[in-house]
Amino acid sequence: MKKLVLILFLTTPFLGFGQTSELGNWLLYFGNKKINNQWNLHHEVQYRNYDAVGDLEQLLLRTGLGYRINDHNSNFLLGYGFILSENYVAGLSDKVEVNEHRIFQQFITRQKFNRIGVQHRYRFEQRFVEDDFKVRFRYFLALNLPLNNTELTDGTVYLAAYNEIFLNGEQSAYDRNRLYGGIGYRLNAGVRFEVGYMNQFLRTQNRDQINLITFVSF
């Protein structure tokens, strides 16, 4: 398992180099507010650019109410998201704005294998994209490996990797796949920072993104 994490981290940045793609930048904030031992409030902001900065691709605002199950390694969440997309018109430099309202349900479960943390996330989305209605299923598998400590404690540097596949309700079920590798730092129990590279495989092309991520729990 450790070898798998290292292989994903080291090879992910090179997967898209032989293909036609553009390098974008995603700024991401993920927050979690603990209400009590069972309930939590999730919130996030994602600012996605087509290039390094200043060319907005998508602004995503998402929130949800979660419920911890039994051993607290599992969480069920009901959420809502608003997504503003600025899509380029084919062959032109003009953009068109697309608004989406999204309802979603997700289940997260976490495991530990020696030093490696594993997270599975299953998410079902109902998407209201302008006048169109779509559904989509997503499966997310994430791994993290502490480097300078045996546990992900304060002051720990760690490797992170994930893969997420998207399947929609259309005749051609495949929507996209995201493969990511990065390095992170846990400042304390409430704050983590991460920087990494993500390759997004779409139906007809792929895109490369540098992700700058902040995680906050309080």
Molecular structure report:
This protein has 218 residues and is mainly β. The chain has a single domain, classed as Porin (Beta Barrel). It contains one helix and eleven strands. An eleven-stranded mixed beta barrel has the order 1-2-3-4-5-6-7-8-9-10-11. Strand 6 (116-129) and strand 7 (132-146) form a beta hairpin. The two termini are 31 Å apart. Residues 1-21 have low confidence and may be disordered.
Q: Would you spell out the secondary-structure blueprint of this structure?
A:
Elements: H1 2-11, E1 23-34, E2 39-49, E3 56-69, E4 74-88, E5 95-113, E6 116-129, E7 132-146, E8 156-168, E9 174-188, E10 191-201, E11 206-217
Parallel strand pairs: 1-11
Antiparallel strand pairs: 1-2, 2-3, 3-4, 4-5, 5-6, 6-7, 7-8, 8-9, 9-10, 10-11
**How many discrete structural domains?**
1
Q: Residue ranges: pLDDT <50 for 5 or more in a row?
A: 1-21
Looking at CATH, which topology would you report?
Porin
Task: Outline the biggest β-sheet.
Answer: 11 strands, mixed, barrel
- What form results from the Cα inertia axes? globular
